[in-house]
Write a structure and sequence with these properties.
This protein is of the alpha+beta class. Helices cover 27% and strands 30% of the residues. The chain has five helices and ten strands. The strands form three sheets. Strands 1-5-6-4-3-2 form a six-stranded mixed beta sheet. Strands 7-10 form a two-stranded antiparallel sheet. It is globular, with a radius of gyration of 17 Å.
Length: 188
């Protein structure tokens, strides 16, 4: 697979290469938008991050680490970063689009999963996380909102672990001490 690139947005900015659509999600530093590549119609999720907010919050190092780690990860159960574009006001992370939403939305809208479906979903989450761990990547913010789910034609689900904003690279046997993650999901 080709490595994700990082380059200035061509022409009149990202609108020249991608047609931006609805907002898929909102975070501290920007929004995730549905986008369609003009050249071939392929759909992507573009994380549009406001440079000024990142600089003001001194989070440039964290963003650089997230991008660097996503470039390492190439697994069917981990969200894929295709490229990073730069504009004067934004950093645009062009990522794989998963059309089923996140696991929390699915859990809230679907009354029950069959045990076989749960096993299949859990196995994929474990495979994605295990792959990250094999490369020394600790996610540090696993929660249903960061598990994207897609229903396949066969009726099964395909899972992607997403949002590596708090992730870090660690050595085998190293103990992490930074308290981070979403308060409702942090272990006691």
């Amino acid at each position: 697979c080709p490595r994700p690139s990082s380059r200035p947005a061509a022409g009149a900015g990202p609108a020249h290469e991608y047609r931006l659509g609805r907002t898929l999600g909102t975070g501290t530093f920007g929004k995730v938008k549905l986008a369609q590549r003009v050249s071939d119609g392929q759909k992507f999720a573009i994380k549009c991050l406001n440079r000024a907010r990142i600089v003001l919050a001194a989070q440039g190092g964290r963003l650089a680490r997230e991008i660097r780690l996503l470039k390492l990860l190439n697994h069917p159960n981990v969200i894929r970063l295709h490229e990073v574009l730069h504009t004067p006001s934004e950093i645009l992370m062009v990522m794989e689009y998963v059309d089923g939403g996140d696991l929390l939305d699915v859990l809230n809208s679907q009354p029950r999963f069959k045990e076989q479906e749960v096993r299949h979903i859990f196995t994929q989450i474990c495979c994605g996380v295990s792959f990250c761990h094999s490369l020394g990547v600790a996610h540090r913010d696993l929660k249903p909102e960061n598990i994207l789910i897609e229903r396949c034609d066969s009726g099964s689900h395909m899972i992607r672990v997403a949002d590596f904003g708090l992730s870090c690279l660690m050595q085998a046997g190293q103990m992490l001490t930074t308290a981070c993650g979403s308060p409702h999901y942090v272990a006691p």
